[in-house]
Amino acid sequence: MAATVIDGKAFAANVREKVAGHVSRLKADHGITPGLAVVLVGEDPASEVYVRNKGKQTVEVGMASFEHKLDASTTQEELLALIDRLNNDPSVHGILCQLPVPDHIDGDTIINAIDPAKDVDGFHISNVGLLGTGQKSMVPCTPLGCLMMLRDHHGSLSGMDAVVIGRSNIVGKPMAQLLLGDSCTVTIAHSRTKDLPGTVRRADIVVAAVGRPEMVPGDWIKPGATVIDVGINRIPAPEKGEGKMKLVGDCDYASCAEVAGAITPVPGGVGPMTIACLLANTVTACCRANGLEEPEGLTA
Ligand SMILES: Nc1nc2c(c(=O)[nH]1)N[C@@H](CN(C=O)c1ccc(C(=O)N[C@@H](CCC(=O)O)C(=O)O)cc1)CN2
């Protein structure tokens, strides 16, 4: 059986179109332009690409983009001062600091300095607590994107067995909370899980978010299961020529696609949904800040 390929690129384009519609209504009906501030410290090449794409897509959906690119030597105090200015800027509805930050800066301190109402990454401890207790929160973008694709594919997720491989604060843990919120039976698996293959084999839904290239082989997948691959790993691709690289996920795509009922590819699966959901979260934050009705279908 060949799996259905869940096209994250097309799904993300659809989310962006919905966001653009809400933005134009906010402008026309209320004279409000949602604004997103993205802060990058240092020169990590992958982060520079992500930040550039965030700015470009923010403008494409009609929102205001405020990009702050800071030198790698920026101190934590200087960064906190910028966050404070953005927290108090009424034209900024969403703020994020691109991760990872340089070693001399404490990421948690920075994240928790962001006004939770403007925390469009959903990483602030208040939003983590709200999500964990089933209350209205800002929801982390990558897990939100995975949830949207799963709901679209399955309709209801109620009663399904879900295994999340990986326990990071930005993907694994919030993903598990969202699946629990949709009434899945959820297992979080990690490097110390006994019998990882057996655990994964029981799942109707597998979300792989470990950051280890092609770690999950097809024979771990229950026939017909849905595989959501969050991994983005750059590995050597000698078949493309000397020194060439390619992107692969945490799942071995070829063997998993033979067994799964549906699967997200890498690239073109979960990745594009991350930025689309960031734009969705910015519109949501803007509506909440102005006491306006929130867009439907763009949050959990
Ligand atoms: N503050 C944050 N930092 C980071 C986050 C985040 O959500 N907030 N997530 C990642 C990086 N990221 C967005 O920031 C991100 C990663 C990947 C993609 C994407 O579209 N990937 C493409 C492939 C792109 C490529 O060729 O490299 C795909 O999978 O198709 C978008 C955003 C860490 N930091």
Commentary on this structure:
By secondary structure, this protein is α/β, with parallel strands linked by helices. The chain folds into 2 domains: 30-124, 3-Layer(aba) Sandwich (Rossmann fold), CATH 3.40.50; 141-272, Rossmann fold (3-Layer(aba) Sandwich). 40% of the residues lie in helices and 16% in strands. It has 10 helices and 11 strands. The strands form 3 sheets. A 6-stranded parallel β-sheet has the order 1-11-8-7-5-6, sandwiched between helices. It has a 3-stranded parallel β-sheet with strand order 3-2-4, with helices on both faces. A two-stranded antiparallel ribbon has the order 9-10. A hairpin with an 8-residue loop joins strand 9 (233-236) and strand 10. The chain is globular. The protein starts with a strand and ends in an 11-residue tail after the last helix. The ligand Nc1nc2c(c(=O)[nH]1)N[C@@H](CN(C=O)c1ccc(C(=O)N[C@@H](CCC(=O)O)C(=O)O)cc1)CN2 is lined by residues 50, 96-99, 121, 141-142, 232, 247, 266-268, 271-272, 274-275. InterPro entries: Aminoacid_DH-like_N_sf (IPR046346), NAD(P)-bd_dom_sf (IPR036291), THF_DH/CycHdrlase (IPR000672), THF_DH/CycHdrlase_cat_dom (IPR020630), THF_DH/CycHdrlase_CS (IPR020867), THF_DH/CycHdrlase_NAD-bd_dom (IPR020631). This is Bifunctional protein FolD. NADP(+) binds at residues 166-168, 232. Residues 140-288 form the Tetrahydrofolate dehydrogenase/cyclohydrolase NAD(P)-binding domain. GO terms for molecular function: methenyltetrahydrofolate cyclohydrolase activity; methylenetetrahydrofolate dehydrogenase (NADP+) activity.
